[in-house]
């Protein structure tokens, strides 16, 4: 489908929970309002809810906390976390 000459995957967006219209959602804040994941995390729509994917070195529900690896603050897996190996040699071992 095309809206204003921009292609839209409505079915894929609807199934992933992404807004396709002006409906309010935490991952689509109004202009000038911050994302719930701050400037560090990526907001992932989960129907009408969301979760934050934090980069290495950030933690917390909204990626608000800086991880200090020198104080024993060790990264760990939560219930919805995963590890992605981009180097095929590492993934085989």
Quick structural summary:
The protein has 93 residues and is α+β, with helices and mostly antiparallel strands. The chain is built from two helices and six strands; from the N terminus they run E-E-H-E-E-E-E-H.
Low-confidence stretches: none
Strand composition percent? 15-25%
What sort of overall outline do the alpha carbons produce when their principal axes are compared?
A: extended
Task: Specify the CATH class.
Answer: Mainly Beta
What this model shows, in words?
The protein has helices at residues 10-16, 88-92, and strands at residues 2-3, 6-7, 42-46, 49-53, 58-59, 65-66. It has 93 residues and is of the alpha+beta class. It has a single domain, classed as Laminin (Ribbon). The chain has a two-stranded antiparallel sheet. It is extended and about 50 Å long. 8% of the residues are buried. The model has no long low-confidence stretch (mean pLDDT 76).
């Amino acid at each position: 489908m095309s809206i204003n000459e921009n292609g839209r995957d409505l079915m894929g967006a609807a199934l992933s929970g992404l807004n396709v219209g002006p409906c309010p959602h935490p991952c689509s804040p109004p202009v000038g309002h911050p994302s719930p994941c701050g400037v560090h995390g990526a907001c992932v729509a989960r129907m009408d809810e969301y979760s934050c994917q934090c980069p290495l070195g950030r933690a917390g529900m909204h990626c608000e906390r800086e991880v200090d690896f020198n104080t024993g603050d060790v990264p760990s897996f939560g219930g919805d976390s995963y590890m992605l190996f981009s180097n095929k040699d590492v993934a085989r071992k």
